[in-house]
From TrEMBL:
Residues 119-176 form the Cupin type-2 domain. The lineage of its organism: Bacteria, Pseudomonadati, Pseudomonadota, Alphaproteobacteria, Hyphomicrobiales. InterPro entries: Cupin_2, OryJ/VirC-like, RmlC-like_jellyroll, RmlC_Cupin_sf. Pfam families: Cupin_2. CDD domains: cupin_BLL6423-like. This is Bll6423 protein.
Length: 194
């Protein structure tokens, strides 16, 4: 049962041959992908950068190509994610599908799910993520705590092991800005623990 939300319009600016500001594109997002292993979970790729400082140019659309969960090294990634309501079947059997799900988003090693995990979508990336609830409700699940979130709430996710649990019965749309990072020695995951 896929419940879809409205399509997202993206306006990208650029420069013409005289250096004047112009609208380069004004259209729907070219890369929108539903995860096969988690039906109803839809990634809407908005943009990414591959360096800091970023080159400001009229280069090609960086969202075209294979879906990747993390941003490029030294880069950023912005995307919307539609998260369907958790189902009893998913909560019971979802952990078995996480390798497939994270493979589809180009980061098979992000999944940290174990038999004692609080949610089958537990994962961790070496990023700082700004997550904003656009519509609906969601629960941020951490190893030892949770936070219930509603539209307008913001999460600053600093490389922690986490999952997004949708217990509302309705789809949730979130906007994520991912910034490439590096774990400090105090929070670096051990091979045995992640």
């Amino acid at each position: 049962m896929t419940m879809s939300l409205a399509p997202i319009r993206r306006v990208v600016t650029g420069h013409d041959a005289h250096g004047d500001a112009v609208i380069a594109t004004d259209d729907a997002l070219p890369t929108v992908v539903e995860l096969a292993a988690i039906p109803g979970t839809i990634f809407h790729e908005v943009w990414s950068t591959a360096a800091t400082p970023v080159s400001i140019d009229n280069g090609p659309d960086p969202t075209i190509g294979a879906l990747r969960l993390p941003p490029p090294t030294h880069g950023t990634r912005i995307r919307f994610v539609d998260i369907p309501p958790d189902t009893e079947d998913f909560l019971k059997h979802g952990a078995a599908r996480m390798k497939e799900a994270f493979s589809q988003v180009g980061d098979v090693h992000a999944s940290t799910v174990r038999p004692d995990s609080p949610h089958p979508l537990m994962h961790r990336t070496e990023t700082v993520d700004y997550g904003i609830v656009i519509s609906g409700e969601i629960t941020l699940v951490l190893d030892k705590s949770e936070a219930n979130l509603k539209a307008g709430d913001v999460v600053i996710q600093r490389g922690t092991n986490h999952a997004w649990a949708n217990r509302s019965g309705k789809p949730c749309r979130m906007l994520f800005m991912l910034v490439d990072g590096q774990f400090s020695d105090e929070v670096k995951p051990s091979r045995a623990g992640s």
